[in-house]
Amino acid sequence: MRYYRTKRDDTVSLIAQEGETAYDLTATEKSPDSFMDLAAAASLADTTVDDIARPLTEEAPTVDLADVREHLIRPIDPDEVWGAGVTYAISQESREGEGGLEEAYIGAYEGERPEVYFKATPTRTVGPGDNVGIRGDSDWDVPEPEFTTILHDGDIVGYTVGNDMCSRDIERENLLYLPQSKIYDKSCAIGPCVVTEETIGDPHDVEMTLTIERDGDVAFEESTSTSEMVRTVDELAEFFRRYNHVPESTALLTGTSIIPPDDFTLEEGDHISIEIENVGTLENTVEQL
């Protein structure tokens, strides 16, 4: 199933979609208003999120899917957002020729320990239809489309689309500047929904497409598959949990698979679309901060 959140006036609703039918789960007697409510209940009952949600659909009113998409907000409010890097060959290859940085990235790509890092707080993370930001002190900015896992108490319970915005020139200048290139206002987007294992199928075999439009024309477009990952989502989640205080809800981005060429940089007003098979499309507009 797919799980969305909508907001009309001050009312937030949790919407479950099965097939072509959408149900307002918040309008039921148990009135869950977030995917993590369902995940917590599933954990206590030792069952799946979908098994918790399906009985609720029997009493939930149906809603129009087109109307749902017009009122989307961020599908969850994660306590923390983390990222993983150099999990695809193209990510490692894009760093070749970067002097001292090259050795670090090759080591992370080939080593037993993956790169796992803190990416964002909820206040730095936006949802579908919101603006993503590019820094005012950066001249080379790109989106990084990422298959994203949703964790409850450290365990994978769902999947969504993520955009890990990055200031490449700051990152390339000095590896110690990596946090500044990654962590800033509106530097991350997730959405449009969360899907479960039943819906995603094999998480290591889904197609992903990045499209960037400028002034109505396609400025960049490329596709790939999570089958190109050299790490598994379970492996990344396991390293995230190691010796770490794990919050109740976490979004873990699993690495970039598509990188625009070095002569491309985002501009204010660019429209970014990231489509992931069996999940949906996350759309955001670029804002100069």
TrEMBL record:
<dbReference type="InterPro" id="IPR011234">
    <property type="entry name" value="Fumarylacetoacetase-like_C"/>
</dbReference>
<keyword id="KW-0479">Metal-binding</keyword>
<dbReference type="GO" id="GO:0003824">
    <property type="term" value="F:catalytic activity"/>
</dbReference>
<dbReference type="GO" id="GO:0044281">
    <property type="term" value="P:small molecule metabolic process"/>
</dbReference>
<protein>
    <recommendedName>
        <fullName>Fumarylacetoacetase-like C-terminal domain-containing protein</fullName>
    </recommendedName>
</protein>
<comment type="similarity">
    <text>Belongs to the FAH family.</text>
</comment>
<dbReference type="Pfam" id="PF01557">
    <property type="entry name" value="FAA_hydrolase"/>
</dbReference>
<dbReference type="InterPro" id="IPR051121">
    <property type="entry name" value="FAH"/>
</dbReference>
<dbReference type="GO" id="GO:0046872">
    <property type="term" value="F:metal ion binding"/>
</dbReference>
<feature type="domain" description="Fumarylacetoacetase-like C-terminal">
    <location>
        <begin position="156"/>
        <end position="286"/>
    </location>
</feature>
<dbReference type="InterPro" id="IPR036663">
    <property type="entry name" value="Fumarylacetoacetase_C_sf"/>
</dbReference>
